[in-house]
Specification:
Helix content is 8%, strand content 38%. With 545 residues, it is mainly β. The chain starts with a helix and ends with a helix.
Length: 545
């Protein structure tokens, strides 16, 4: 079963109205060929999908980036400097269809082809949806913790049935195409933020779990709807309800969330700082009349983004866009792409990561100049995209297939490129070292400060800022970091890749276990039951600071 078909079905349920036709010079209507479409992940094409990982399983420290390396204890969880096959008991009878991680996430989610949900990593706010919140337990001694009954970190893929059982208990009527086996509904896509998780189901409903104190869960604006921790998934107040189209894509940042409806509309909710909700304001206000104490707005109810700036130099010129097909969230900035290839970014503009030739924040989605895009991915202080050059408002013809494989465009990068004190760009620039490669959106991912991809028969990775957890996968004796794209020697010649997903301290590849290249990789057997060590729990608590 190919879950990408569920997503495409939602996408085609209602035709986007924003860019269906254009007027030619003689006044007649002509078709505007879609440049961007919802990204499909075809794990069904693999005979036996398997997760291959590079990087650290020390989620608590890895999520802090290079600084986390300095806080690791003497006994750190396993780290894989070379691509390693993850063999988890929970996944023995499951076929991976899609992975979900995020640039600032400390946990990972996997969805199987029959719509089940598996999760692992940090669970300090219940973000795994297991029904329990993991937390270190004080021992009474200053600075010392003991293993908690519910570990702060779940070591390997663990089935999280509450995602589907909670969804099933709220469903009315019998089984449908949105159900798994005529009963529980199928999960089809996911998004992973710093401390929260979003799961989209085949009927277009969205459910969430984790940290919601700043409104990122989208339950509502009442105090009970914005909990510090929620381990039992609840429905987000958007998509699949009366009068609302189903949701076909979601994204999650540090403390905010985004969703795209089947009619091409964009929704946002969460913390308003940096204007990352896209409503024309950063929501800042003073909490006291007698003194200055500024804070921002927690918006717990999803709201439609109703104005997009078409010109970066004139933010006042806006219009409503109804043909959004893809969305991405970094730590504090976001991006979306319309079906005609227009890219929009907004939020924190530090280091020029929004691509508008300034470092100013943008409180509305603002169109990028110079290219049409098929996908845009946000990291911490960098952004990357696939697309085609634009000249006088029109994209160049889509390049022919390279090596028999269609390409989703050339790679653009901007923001921090070689360290925060090194080379950078405030607008999209082509990555010349990858010119001519056939690049696919489903096999490209951006972590907090690194990019990883599989192109043709090679895996390639590099970092925008120094990394130290082996996430580039150059091997035990290879460099730990590089600002230039380099091939992963151990994956040279890999035949098939369904997806690449990355976070701050690791990179995941969904590959075919029957591929001769994959068969030669090292294997790691995740213990059936792993208790968190005092060190890992202490690190997990520190990660929340």
């Amino acid at each position: 079963m190919d879950l990408s078909q569920d997503i495409l079905a939602l996408a085609e349920e209602a035709e986007p109205t924003g860019a269906a036709k254009k007027e030619s010079d003689d006044g007649e209507k002509e078709e505007d060929t879609a440049i961007a479409r919802p990204i499909t992940i075809d794990a069904g094409a693999l005979k036996q999908p398997v997760i291959v990982m590079c990087g650290s399983t020390d989620w608590a420290n890895a999520v802090k980036g290079s600084a986390g390396r300095m806080t690791q204890g003497s006994v750190a969880p396993p780290q894989f400097n070379a691509p390693t096959v993850i063999q988890a008991p929970a996944l023995k009878s499951a076929r991976i269809a899609r992975l979900g991680v995020g640039p600032c996430a400390g946990h990972c989610v996997a969805i199987t082809d029959d719509g089940r949900v598996f999760a692992w990593g940090l669970n300090t706010h219940g973000q795994l949806g297991l029904g329990e919140v993991g937390a270190p337990v004080p021992t009474g001694k200053k600075g010392v913790t003991s293993p908690s009954v519910t570990p702060a970190t779940v070591a390997g893929p663990t089935e999280a049935p509450r995602w589907t059982t909670q969804r099933a208990s709220s469903a009315k009527g019998g089984g449908s195409s949105a159900s798994r086996g005529g009963g529980a509904p199928r999960a089809v896509s996911c998004a992973v933020g710093k401390n929260h998780t979003l799961i989209t189901f085949a009927d277009g409903a969205v459910w969430a779990a984790g940290h919601g104190a700043r409104g990122a869960l989208g339950y509502g604006t009442r105090k009970p709807d914005m909990p510090d921790a929620c381990s039992v998934p609840r429905r987000v107040a958007v998509g699949g309800t009366t009068g609302q189209p189903p949701i076909r894509a979601v994204a999650a940042g540090a403390d905010f969330s985004l969703a795209v409806g089947a009619r091409g509309e964009l929704y946002s909710w969460g913390w308003s700082e940096h204007g990352k909700l896209g409503h024309g304001t950063d929501g800042q206000y003073n909490t006291k009349d007698s003194s200055i104490k500024l804070t921002y707005t927690a918006s717990g109810t999803p709201r439609r983004v109703d104005a997009f700036a078409e010109d970066a130099a004139d933010g006042a010129s806006t219009r409503l866009i109804t043909n959004v097909v893809a969305v991405s969230a970094g730590k504090h900035h976001a991006a979306c792409v319309s079906s005609d290839g227009h890219g929009y970014t907004w939020g924190d503009g530090a280091y020029g990561k929004l691509g508008h030739r300034t470092q100013d924040q943008r409180t509305r989605p603002t169109r990028l100049a110079g290219a049409r895009f098929t996908t845009i991915l946000c990291g911490d202080n960098s952004t990357c995209a696939l697309g085609f050059p634009e000249y006088r408002g029109r994209p160049f013809a889509k390049p022919p297939s390279v090596g028999g494989t269609d390409s989703d465009g050339c790679l653009y990068v901007w923001g921090v490129l070689k360290g925060t004190h090194g080379e950078g760009a405030t607008h999209p620039v082509p990555e010349q070292e990858l010119a001519g490669w056939a690049l696919k959106a489903s096999c490209l991912s951006m972590g907090a400060s690194h990019v990883a991809m599989v192109a043709e028969t090679a895996a390639i990775a590099w970092a925008q800022s120094a990394v130290a957890f082996g996430q580039l996968g150059y091997g035990t004796h290879g460099p730990k970091s590089s600002h230039r794209p380099q091939k992963l020697v151990d994956l040279d010649g890999v035949a098939g890749c369904a997806q690449v997903a990355a976070h701050a301290g690791a990179t995941f590849y969904v590959l075919d276990a029957d591929d001769p290249v994959v068969k030669e990789l090292a294997k790691y057997d995740v213990p059936a039951e792993v208790e968190a060590s005092p060190e890992s729990n202490t690190a997990a608590a520190a990660a929340e600071a």
